[in-house]
UniProtKB/TrEMBL annotation, chain A:
Superkingdom assignment: Eukaryota
Residue intervals of the Exoribonuclease phosphorolytic domain: 43-245
GO MF entry, a single one: nucleotidyltransferase activity
Gene Ontology terms: biological process: exonucleolytic trimming to generate mature 3'-end of 5.8S rRNA from tricistronic rRNA transcript (SSU-rRNA, 5.8S rRNA, LSU-rRNA); nuclear mRNA surveillance; nuclear polyadenylation-dependent rRNA catabolic process; rRNA catabolic process; TRAMP-dependent tRNA surveillance pathway; U1 snRNA 3'-end processing; U4 snRNA 3'-end processing; U5 snRNA 3'-end processing
Protein name, as recorded: Ribosomal RNA-processing protein 43
Family, per entry: Belongs to the RNase PH family.
Organism phylogeny: Eukaryota, Fungi, Dikarya, Ascomycota, Saccharomycotina
TrEMBL record, chain B:
Stored SUPFAM superfamilies: Ribonuclease PH domain 2-like, Ribosomal protein S5 domain 2-like
Organism: Wickerhamomyces ciferrii (strain ATCC 14091 / BCRC 22168 / CBS 111 / JCM 3599 / NBRC 0793 / NRRL Y-1031 F-60-10)
This protein's UniProt keywords: Cytoplasm, Exosome
Coiled coil stretches, renumbered: none
Molecular function terms, GO-annotated: mRNA 3'-UTR AU-rich region binding
GO cellular component: cytoplasmic exosome (RNase complex); nuclear exosome (RNase complex); nucleolus
Protein name: Ribosomal RNA-processing protein 42
From TrEMBL, chain C:
Compartments it resides in: Cytoplasm; Nucleus
Protein source organism: Wickerhamomyces ciferrii (strain ATCC 14091 / BCRC 22168 / CBS 111 / JCM 3599 / NBRC 0793 / NRRL Y-1031 F-60-10)
KW Transcription regulation (keyword) present: no
Entry's transmembrane regions: none
Keywords: Cytoplasm, Exosome, Nucleotidyltransferase, Nucleus, RNA-binding, rRNA processing, Transferase
Family to which the UniProt record says this protein belongs: Belongs to the RNase PH family.
Superkingdom of source: Eukaryota
InterPro entries per record: ExoRNase_PH_dom1, PNPase/RNase_PH_dom_sf, Ribosomal_Su5_D2-typ_SF, RNase_PH
MF GO annotations: polyribonucleotide nucleotidyltransferase activity; RNA binding
One GO CC term, this protein: nuclear exosome (RNase complex)
Domain Exoribonuclease phosphorolytic: 48-170
Biological process (GO), any one: TRAMP-dependent tRNA surveillance pathway
Enzyme Commission number: 2.7.7.8
Protein name per UniProt: Polyribonucleotide nucleotidyltransferase
Length: 383, 264, 236
């Protein structure tokens, strides 16, 4: 008695194949001319954003009691990115000749020519004229603990790309310090020195200056693919609605000298300046709008001839090249299979590149194609 | 897990009886005996130690510092250390948060005031050396004793220093006692329809829910909240039981305060 | 005090000071003033509330809730296997992530403890041995951290109920929380008249607790109706 064994091929529903064999699933999709997420090869996901109303200056008539200065809620596909901008104040280190009045006076007599033109030969475009922001990116994934590699890399890349994009100049972060005084009737006045105002300083003694430091907290929900594009767009949109508060020094504090006992010596004087931000008045953060562009990513998938052959003939599509350029990678299958990637950050009119990352063996044609798509995308974006 | 399934159900049955039969024979409103010492730390402004009958032990040290009122917003700082628990666990932070809310609200800043510019800031350091039951009650009792026996240096310079730029100076050896009322916290365990005060570890293990109720100035006050006395045995509670627990606290609170006050 | 430098995050220069804002002038403060009658009117609060479940696709369950400038998002992960020795009941952990910068450590833990205690008594823990359930609370925006933080807590609790249901975790009953502004107390109920959570932080004595219970219980019935209606309408 002989039993006949029949080998039945196992079959799985598409969702299961996608999990257990993402590469195969992707290849089969591509062979019939569609991506697993049902987008076309060169189709970007839609990006929607709004300010989310999280900022202190949500609308004109209401000020919220929060220190968030700008915000953005971005949605693209299932992914949500929430960015909040906060700030700190730091005292700037000034060169000695600016702090010390004597030195200035001495220079005025002996080094008249030198003091003025010392800045002239430095071109404005130098990197140290620009500032970056300090981003902390968190991708929610149901775990606690130290940041993941992806989070650290995203934060670092944001920081560097932002700095090299020259979007935020040093000047725009200067704190315009006003002075608050209370007159004998108890009326409070705050004086802000305007830019064209040449009047003397408020008698704060030695010159001091302060600047804002901007922090961006970026929270990502429902990650589904590489995040830099979305995070970049989210941070920029939050910065575009960021407003910096005006700040003042309390008149009483302006000349307070607190005796500090130091090594038994009573003579040391410590000056304390408490800088208080105005509850209401603020100025929009000045950004170099021309430098603000978009970031796009591309993945290149080599077509696997074998997996195409497994398809029935009527399903397959004519694919003219051996590799396919996919825009805006989404989903596990595409992300795992994209061994070659291009990431482009450009400025507003896609004239200049701000950042370009190429991984793997990318042909010139593919690179050119991705530039074209970036330009094309920006035109639509601008509308 | 300190109890076997049989022990647990036996104990649970006993505590369900009317009146509840507690393993150490106490009534539902009876505390475990405590032993206290005060003023034994020379370098602190106030100190106290309480030892419970089960070996739980808590030391509180109170230190004071002169601070500028304009730059300090909180005149009481609480630090909690329980042996066997890391500082950043939620258990410690929750104890700390309960104590901090309690003392910030109920230690009057008047009693800490020095001059128009300066005040004392109290640093309450709570150290639980060994701990077998929910330690909050023990901690507040010990802090109560310590606060009640805190002596702050007597100021000799002028109290009104609005126009003068000088720091306050103090008497060489005379002290003023810190005057004021201080809050304490009671722990009540709820088991079935019964409620028992000051549960020990076995009682905690089988309890359905726990409640902490604060007491100040002759009245039950907030914070009032439910606490988990064991891992994963929590059950919901009828509102009536919470109200009855508060009545129980009302019944015993004054006696507790009196006996704490009589501690030497 | 953090003496070690965090090299994993870009936190900016160490000597930068956080912004200190002057208090708002009176005309602005009046707009932010809390209207006690508005806080008591639970029905209109419910109509102002926006709820959405299941937005976060990589969590087992999630919910998003918005009311009066409070925005919270809860994601529930689990029941998922845990490492280590066998446990016969699932372990519950609650984490709160604050995106507003308004929470301190103590308030953070207070929220977590309250939520944990609430749900420990309603989740069928023994149904999920060898596993853990992690609840992540994301605070996105806060109406008033000084006076209405317990209102926020009640919203967090309601949102957590929805997220747990979205995750398909078995619970005894819906946990509904209600907040009493007058006495700064939040209570959480199941089965209409059983308390699973209480946190009172009022300034005065709590002699009137029975009144507070009565009041919040009434409110909670409205909330429960609203949650049930929402669940039925979204399940269709």
């Amino acid at each position: 008695m002989s039993e006949e064994f029949e080998f039945k091929p196992m079959s799985f529903p598409p969702a299961v194949v996608a999990r257990i064999s993402p590469e195969l699933s992707l290849q089969r999709h591509l062979a019939i001319g569609i991506r697993p997420n049902l987008r076309k090869f060169e189709e970007f996901r839609n990006i929607e954003f709004n300010d989310g109303g999280l900022s202190r200056y949500g609308s004109d008539d209401q000020i919220k009691n929060t220190s968030v200065l700008g915000s953005s809620v971005l949605k693209s596909g299932n992914t949500t990115v929430i960015t909040t901008i906060t700030a700190g104040i730091i005292e700037e280190d000034l060169p000695a000749h600016e702090i010390n009045d004597d030195a200035a006076a001495v220079n005025a007599v002996f080094a008249k020519d030198k003091t003025d033109d010392s800045n002239n030969d430095i071109p404005k475009s130098q990197l140290d004229e620009y500032e970056s922001i300090y981003p902390v990116v968190e991708v929610e994934r149901g775990r606690v603990g130290a940041p993941t590699d992806e989070e650290m890399i995203l934060s670092q890349k944001l920081y560097e790309t932002f700095l090299h994009s020259k979007i935020l100049s040093k000047d725009s972060l200067k704190v315009k310090v006003g002075l608050r005084s209370i007159d004998s009737q108890g009326k409070v006045d705050i004086y802000y020195k305007d830019d064209d105002d040449d009047s003397e300083d408020f008698g704060l003694g030695p010159k001091r200056s302060w600047k804002f430091v901007l922090y961006a907290k970026v929270k990502v929900f429902s990650r589904s693919g590489p995040l830099f594009d979305l995070v970049w767009a989210s941070v920029l949109s939050a910065l575009q609605n960021t407003k910096l508060p005006r700040a003042h020094i309390d008149e009483n504090a302006a000349d307070i000298k607190i005796p500090v006992k130091m090594r038994g010596n009573h003579g040391t004087i410590r000056e304390q300046y408490q800088i208080i931000c105005d509850a209401i008045s603020r100025d929009p953060l000045k950004l170099n709008n021309e430098a603000i562009g978009i970031s796009s990513n591309f993945g290149i998938i080599d077509i696997d001839e074998e997996s195409i052959q497994t398809l029935q003939n009527e399903d397959s599509m004519e694919i003219d090249s051996k590799s396919i350029l996919l825009t805006d990678i989404e989903g596990e299958e595409e992300e795992i299979s994209s061994k070659k990637t291009i990431s482009i950050v450009s400025d507003r009119d896609s004239k200049n590149l701000k950042s370009l990352t190429i991984i793997g063996n990318v042909s010139n044609d593919q690179l050119r194609k991705s530039f074209e798509l970036t330009k094309f995308r920006f035109k639509h974006f601008a509308k | 897990m300190i109890l076997s399934a049989t022990e647990r159900s036996y104990l649970y049955e006993l505590l369900q009886q009317t009146p509840p039969i507690r393993p150490d024979g106490r009534s539902n409103k009876q505390f475990r005996p405590i032993q206290s010492h005060i003023g034994f730390l020379d370098n602190s402004n106030g100190s106290a130690k309480i030892t419970l009958s089960d070996g739980s032990e808590c030391i509180v040290s109170i230190k004071a510092e002169v601070v500028e009122k304009s730059t300090t917003n909180e005149l009481v700082s609480v630090d909690v250390d329980v042996s066997g628990h890391r500082d950043d666990t939620s258990f410690i932070l929750n104890l700390q948060s309960s104590l901090k809310t309690l003392y910030l609200k109920h230690i009057s800043s008047e009693s800490l005031n020095l001059t128009t510019k300066f005040a004392y800031k109290l640093f309450i350091d709570v150290l639980v050396i060994s701990n077998y039951s929910y330690p909050l009650t023990l901690m507040t009792f010990t802090s109560y004793l310590a606060l009640n026996n805190t002596y702050l240096p007597k100021i000799t310079s002028s109290v009104d220093d609005k126009e003068i730029e000088e720091q306050p100076t103090f008497h060489d050896y005379e002290f003023n006692k810190l005057i004021g009322q201080f809050p304490i916290v009671f722990t009540v365990a709820i088991i079935g329809k019964n409620y028992i005060i000051d549960p020990n570890i076995e009682e905690m293990e089988v309890s359905d829910n726990g409640l902490i109720i604060s007491w100040f100035n002759g009245k039950p006050i907030s914070p009032i909240q439910n606490v988990k006395l064991n891992d994963g045995n929590l059950k919901s509670v009828k509102p009536q039981l919470i109200l009855q627990s508060i009545d129980l606290v009302k019944e015993v609170a004054n006696d507790v305060i009196n006996s704490l006050n009589s501690a030497e | 005090m953090a003496t070690t430098i965090d090299r994993r995050r870009l936190l900016g220069p160490a000597n930068a000071k956080p912004l200190v804002f002057a208090p708002l002038p009176e005309e602005y403060q009046q707009k932010l003033q809390i209207d006690a009658s508005k806080e008591d009117d639970i029905e209109s609060q419910i109509t102002r509330t926006f709820i959405k479940s299941g937005l976060i696709t990589n969590a087992n369950g999630s919910s998003f809730l918005e009311l009066d400038g409070n925005i919270v998002s809860i994601s529930v992960y689990g029941p998922r296997p845990i490492r280590g020795s066998f446990v016969e009941k699932t372990t519950l952990s609650v984490n709160l992530e604050d995106n507003t910068g308004l929470f301190n450590d103590l308030l953070n833990k207070k929220f977590c403890q309250y939520i944990e205690n609430n749900f420990l008594s309603v989740i069928n823990l023994s149904k999920y041995p060898k596993s853990g359930i992690d609840i992540f609370i994301n605070i996105i925006s806060v109406q008033d951290i000084d006076q209405l933080y317990l209102k926020l807590l009640s919203l967090v609790s309601d949102a957590t109920t929805l997220a747990i249901i979205d995750a398909g975790i078995e619970i005894i009953d819906l946990v509904v929380s209600s907040f009493d502004y007058e006495n700064n107390t939040v209570l959480s109920y199941i089965k209409n008249d059983e308390i699973v959570g209480i946190l009172g932080e009022s300034e005065d004595s709590i002699e009137n607790l029975s009144k507070i219970i009565e009041k919040t219980q009434k409110k909670s019935i409205h909330v429960k109706n609203a949650l049930t209606t929402h669940l039925i309408s979204t399940s269709q």
